[in-house]
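Researcher: Go.
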Amino acid sequence: MRHAFTVAAFALALATPGPARADAEAPPEVSQIVPPRLVQSVAAPYPPGAEGDAAVILAVSVNVSGDVEDIRVLEGFEPFASVATDSVRGARFVPATRDGRPIAVTVRFRLDFTKAAPPAPAREPEPEPEPEPEPDQPATPSPGPRGAKRPDDVIVRGGRATVGAGVADSLARTEVRQLPGAFGDPFRAIEAMPGMTPVLTGLPYFYVRGAPPGNVGYFFEGVRVPYLFHFGLGPAVVHPGLIAKTELHRGGYPAALGRYAGGIVESQAMPPGDRLHGEGQLRLIDAGGLVEAPFAGGKGSALAAARYSYTAALFSLLSSDTTLDYRDYQARVSYSLSDRDTISVLGFGSYDFAAQRQTLDPSTRGLLADPNASPVTRDVTRVLFASEFHRADVRWDRTLPQGGRLRAATTVGFDRTRVDARRAATDVMTGARVELTQPLSRTVVLRTGADLVVDSYTADSLPAYADDDDVVVRQRSVFVERVDYATGARVDAVLTMIPKMEIVPGVRFDVYGSGPARALAVDPRLTARFAVNDRLRIIHAYGVASQPPSTPIALPGITIARLRGGLQRAVQTSAGVEVDLPSDFTATGTVFHNAFYDLNDALGTAQVELVDIERSDSLLGKSRGSAFGLELGVRRKLTQRIAGLASYTLSRSMRTVNGQRVLSAYDRPHVFTAALSVDLGKQWRAGARFVTYSGIPMSAAQPAFPEQLVGVPPSRTPVFVRADLRLEKRWQMGRDGWIGVVLEALNATLSREVTGYACRTALALPGSTPAVPGCYERVIGPVSVPSLGVEGGF
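Model: Structure:
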């Protein structure tokens, strides 16, 4: 039975009289704010099996395009909360405006469920807001009885996060667009979050609470992907217009996420649209676009997006010997079979290529990529790196009684990587999964699922040359033809039986296989969220995470074969607070401790000499480790007129190898980021980001013989500091269109980073007193990326 409900969006802030003026001038002019309007009515079913009347209040974020970007449940219980959220998620709005310019707002919606009543259309948001004064002007008394006014972004206090979301930081699409140095890419914006320790400035590889980059998992719409960025300093592999929200799970994540012993980055796509829209971007180095259109009377939707770089042509014009190229694509088709059933197909992929032109020396032609090349050939192209991956995900979604949701999906994928023109590794992936979320009562929501992933690996053969037999032998641990699999099941429950408390216990069971090797993992999880009052929340997270052996950095088609050394495991614990501050600021503070066992961290243990002959290859070396620290963050939504964020991480990361306990090679005790974005008026917006972090630890090399003297480097490399800048100007084109020019720079200060030291040696002869040899810095950079582009949408 369907219900009648009222959707009412109203402002929280009240207009108050401004201070008296000494003169009798006319009151200052104020900005004209027009609230968002529903394009069409919203209908939602009364949950089958539910009883009685109920009310749900949601905080709904509507962006400048009129799309719903985020929904939070403020009040209400299951199954009504889930039905209300699903109903509003696909709503479309005419965006709110200030002085005729579209702006992003967050409004509150109330949905009333009455079992016996017939369905009724949604009403427009009410009451009509008063104009919002400029920041430097006093507010005028409102003639209305309640003095309501429409703020630019209504931050609702005392609200809870998405039910059972665990412990995660999230960034919406509109926020990412305003973050300097992120180039509009949600994946690159996660660098600004607490707990992220960079390997090198500008590169998208991070240690997350002590876990190395190879232990960080990436998922897009529930599909595993090997990496999120194009090679080097390239953009994200998914068009930013397709991404609705990106979440960083540093630890204690829900049971649905697993098979990684570090953090997990999860992105969700924008829901299918019911109107024609698109956007495009043209920059100095690449061009991209996205378009989506409905069909079958709005029952279906088709989307296509792509990005192509022309860096290869630019390098050619500059007479460079280097070739760098990348491209990506995304496509989605969805169709509603009924009010409860939807089928969809999502496909996406990425390609990267880096090569260098070299002069052929006939005396060494046997070492080149093509040993059969003619000796008269003088120039050859040497492939430095070539990588690609492709995914196709077919899914069926069904809405169940009482607000439950069921998804069944199957995925196929193809991964391939070629390194240094020597050999290529290929992986053909097939997988299937089923996911169920079902409210059992008003206070219990069950979430469960199971999946199977099979990876078939192949590799090019490589003959053993006289000068690199050891390389060929070591690569047998990686380039092995085999079939790997991972299968498992998981379950957790969101419990809200105690007022102002949410507890989520869960567990994962996974079985891994690689060739003849087998391994079992049982990973329990527990998160709890306590609302002390309307502004203060306490959050705890505990969990065990397991992962097969991994390479230092994830590459398509390349993994360590046969579970050499066993599974990696991490015990993750954290406790923190979240508090809502005045002026729409939110602050967080978290302490964490992670313990690692049988960790593959060739980067973090690079300074330790392995003595185990069977594990003399650093890729196979195992270590134990720990990381602990404090994470602080403060944030005001970047869609505000004056907005920003700041994050600080104080941490220590240790490794134990061969009984020797040392600092991780990428232990950075201090990492600080601050960003500010300001609306300058007349559709100008400027922003800056400041980044600084500690250097990495250094240790002196041991003399090769007693008479040798070796220079002693400083204990750490110098502190690194950089600044990113962003300036944007937009023009409104009709009611729904816009065009803008963006000037942006990563590392606008052209800062150079010290990556280590090279120390000289000397010989101490009998009877002589030689000076102690010195050390000189190894410097990279400046790694700087300027960008000038035109973008627009409709």
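Model: The two ends are 38 Å apart (CA to CA).
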